[in-house]
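Honest question from a wet-lab person: if I give you the sequences of every part of a complex, can you actually get the arrangement of the whole thing, not just the pieces? Trying it with mine:
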Amino acid sequence: MNFREQYIAFKTIVRKEIARYLRIWTQTLLPSAITMSLYFVIFGTLIGSRIGNMGGFSYMEFVVPGLIMMAIVTNSYSNVVSSFFGSKFSHAVEELLVSPASNVVILMGYVVGGVSRGILVALVVTLVSLFFTRLNIHSYVIVVGVVLMTSTLFALAGFINAVYANSFDDISIIPTFVLTPLIYLGGVFYSMDLLPHFWANVSKLNPLVYVVNAFRYGVLGVSDVSLPVALAMITFFTVLAFAYCMYLLNSGKRLRQ
Amino acid sequence: MIPALSIEHLSKIYENGFEALKGISLTVQQGDFFALLGPNGAGKSTTIGIICSLVSKSGGQVSVFDIDIDKDFPAAKRHIGIVPQEFNFNQFEKPLDIVINQAGYYGLPQKTARQRAEHYLRELGLWDQRKVQSRMLSGGMKRRLMIARALVHEPRLLILDEPTAGVDIEMRRSMWEFLQQINHQGTTIILTTHYLEEAEALCRHIAIINHGEIVENTSMKSLLRQLRRETFVLDCVEDLPDRVTIDEFTARRVDCHTLEVDVEKGQHVNDVFAALDRQGIHISSMRNRANRLEEMFVKLVEGAS
Ligand SMILES: Nc1ncnc2c1ncn2[C@@H]1O[C@H](COP(=O)(O)OP(=O)(O)OP(=O)(O)O)[C@@H](O)[C@H]1O
Ligand SMILES: [Mg+2]
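Yes, you can. This is the full assembly:
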């Protein structure tokens, strides 16, 4: 297929992915909006007022970037993992596998679908947050860049999960037992300064720390880790995940018999 | 002319060590209507899976219109339309979307995709159902949906894996007519089936596969002739002459006391005896020679029912 045809195939996958999550928006878009609103009310308003300042900002201002990031991470991940596993489970993935669409087109189609959901939910959550606080963006370039990179990274991770999953249980194990703890321990709710030295160092192994802090830097202009290091880390993990996804697709592992 | 499909020494060993294909070779000419017949577990779906990339081969070569799948699989895939044995579409999507999306995966622009989708959904009697969730379709409709989906990029080679399984007789006939029409328009068709009747109604050539091996590969006509023929083994009292001829029958001298005679449908065994009698040859006993093909078919029929 020439480039134009590959592009049509890519657009087709993206359009189908978007149609899918819009069709079932009560399962895909609504839950994050509700959960995040609850976080804003409980942590920001009720408890936050007693916490006082964190990292030099009111607690509400401090948690909002982390919570937006949390929405992006979980939504881009779960969109790809459930959609791709679903099509593997129903064998509808064969529609793509028998077609001449290239592996990179298949992967990017799903990834962009997941990214778009991450961003859409982020916008909704941001809108909701405006009822509770003001947002002054420190650097739009960094905000947009980090959002795109992070959602891509977790969409790719969701793809890997989907390829390995054999049952619907397998697609909830990783989000529950790996992703959620990493997010909670990734500095969404607290500054690394609060941790004892040892645990602050351990936290540096958690990719979510870089994601949350890079984004917080974009919004507030402060970060617990150095910005170049954070961006380098996110890039590194994204490239790694992309390479692994391509390896899975090219080798046909768990997709072709 | 370039063959539509050429398979050489194709083998498949599944991950669990099971050898599903033992080096089969097969050629399907352009424009042919080809049947791949065989009992459950013979290796039909495995063969088809390899041709359309859902199964990886363990050895051998496959070319589609002279394009080696090892060299340029995407180019080969453009020529292939596949209707699998099991339903493999998202049951929550609508038939129209399923067919249009499939066109998109082959790189067809939206406008063409819509026109083709409408054309094939109408042809297959699914236009009125285009906007219902596919899970609401009947089994026969789902199968026709997969045919429409397989045709939307107008492949030169259409492969159908048991297209009429679970389809009622009336629907089966109209599907047959549709396939014949497509074949007349120049599409090469390969189908797998358990029913000799189906192969007989549609196909010009046939390969029979069993335990991962091709046991017969011939024209439909000659297969039917073979099936209608019975071979008898005659034990003779007298020593046989070097050459034995019996009027309209084919006779073979096996050794000096044994003779094999083919009896076609419509011929009478009596005439064999009469002719031998005139030559002074007497028969002490007689038995049927086991017919390899017939045994196959008994198995096929048992498997299918
Ligand atoms: N993934 C697999 N792993 C191991 N063995 C398999 C696998 N898929 C198929 N087989 C075995 O390979 C053999 C051939 O299977 P195949 O599906 O090709 O048969 P078939 O001719 O299509 O049969 P049917 O008429 O029942 O559809 C069978 O014995 C089957 O059990
Ligand atoms: Mg089969």
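Two things worth pointing out. DSSP finds ten helices and 14 strands in chain B. The radius of gyration of chain B is 24 Å.
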